[in-house]
Amino acid sequence: MTLYEELKARGLVAQVTDEAEISNMINAGKARFYIGFDCTADSLTAGHFMALTLMKRLQNGGNRPVALIGGGTTMIGDPSGRTDMRKMLTKEDIDYNAGRFRVQMERFIDFGEGRATMMNNADWLLGLNYIELLREVGACFSVNNMLRAECYKQRMEKGLSFLEFNYMIMQSYDFYYLFKNHGVNMQFGGDDQWSNMLGGTELIRRKLGKDAHAMTITLLTDSQGKKMGKTAGNAVWLDAAKTTPYDFYQYWRNVGDSDVMKCIRMLTFLPLDQIAEMETWKDQQINRAKEILAFELTSMVHGREEAEKAEASAKSLFAAGAEADIPTAEIAENDLSADGTADILTLLVKSGLTPSRSDARRAVEQGGVTADGEKIADTRAAFTGEALRAGVVIRRGKKAYKKVVLK
User: Fold this and answer.
1) How many helices (H) and strands (E) does the chain have?
2) CA 36 to chain CA centroid, nearest Å
């Protein structure tokens, strides 16, 4: 099986400009390709997994990746898939975020000599002369075609700013610049980037009279069609300080039964024949598949040692309650009542397991709360300072856990 055939078998390929040419270049290890990463936060997320693992797969096949940091494009903000305008960041914030990205990317990509390159489009975008850009690039774009682009549709409902309207031109210019100056012949990205990527191939054709190629990868969605990589409305971060290795492991351990094999096929590097065997698993074997998925992805992001700790913690939690090495939530002496205890409602709120005491009360009354493996039926249940110094594992439902510790 060729590398391109494997990408298709894993369900990664969405749209391509010229399948025969792209397949030939990838299989021969002659693709010098780029994927862009805008610096909208100080950490990459699980949503970037598809791009990062694709870069790793292609690099392993002899192709040369360019990780393009969007120091310039982040100052505009990508409107793709958005109903509101992105928050505008300062250049200092963007530069800081860009520095954090490289550390995380190095888990996936070998930036050794001749292996891969990291660039920042601020190096060429921030110095552009506006009039020159309009004359050299603006004349190559049809406003009518741009307004029909998928990347603008949702923003058009609430009003698309002229700032965001320029994003396609900036991304297209990136491809043109990289093709002309660095021999980058392909661009990859999420399927929601198709219009922007075609803008780049067309700009290269019109300005240079040459063909460049683009391929989009399938967006990672659950069985309801929602993008994966968020939990309780918050991103699942690749930075351990923002999402602990344990919480990262637990996110993938708790994916839906109908989604686990798709995630294994698209995100892990397990052999396809092994995955085909796993696809026949049923009942309790599905839970084993989830554990394999969680371990593989946690190993990639945080290293094997952290993955082993997270796996052991998850199993220990179910087996022995408070002895598990799970994320902790600290409370202070002034969180205790006058008698030196803290009630279950306080612990639920302080640990972040519930947003309010009323929500905590409902959780207890509905029988969904345990402490050190024992179900809590009384909303007045309290824990001594001594017990809390040792740590009490509070569980809400099946998936949310915290070890509450008095400091």
Assistant:
1) 19, 15
2) 14
Helix H or strand E encompassing 154: helix 150-158
384: left (phi over 0), alpha (psi -120 to 50) or beta: beta
Q: Given a cut of 70, is residue 163 above it in pLDDT? A: yes
Give CA separation, 355 vs 270, 299, 345, 364, in Å.
Answer: 39, 31, 11, 14
Return the DSSP state at 141.
-
**DSSP of 266-321:** HH----HHHHHHHTT--THHHHHHHHHHHHHHHHHHH-HHHHHHHHHHHHHHHHHG
Closest Cα partner for 377 from 387, 392, 367, 386?
A: 367
Best-predicted range by mean pLDDT (106-110, 130-134, 226-230, 396-400): 106-110
Amino acid (1-letter code) at residue 336: L
Q: Any idea how long the chain is?
A: 407
**Rounded CA gap, 369 and 356, in Å?**
15
**DSSP assignments along 311-335, one per residue:** HHHHHHHHHHGGGS---EEEE-GGG
* Joined tokens for residue 242: 């923002």
Separation of alpha carbons 134 and 111, rounded Å:
35
Nearest to 328 by CA among 311, 346, 347: 347
| Cα 245 to Cα 34, 35, 299, 322, distances in angstroms | 29, 26, 9, 18
Chain center to CA of 289 = 21
The stretch 378-383 carries a mean pLDDT of 89
Q: Kindly report the backbone phi and psi dihedral angles of residue 88, in degrees, each rounded to the nearest multiple of 5, phi listed first.
A: -80, 130
pLDDT of 83 strictly over 50: no
pLDDT, tens digit (0-9, with 9 covering 90-100), for 257-286: 889 999 999 999 999 999 999 999 988 788
Q: Which of 11, 8, 30 is nearest to 21 (CA)?
A: 30
- Are the CB atoms for 348 and 284 separated by under 8 Å? no
> Is a pLDDT exceeding 80 seen at residue 325?
no
Q: Is the distance from CB of 202 to CB of 230 less than 8 angstroms?
A: no
Percent of the chain with pLDDT over 90: 44
φ, ψ for residue 384, nearest 5 deg = -75, 160
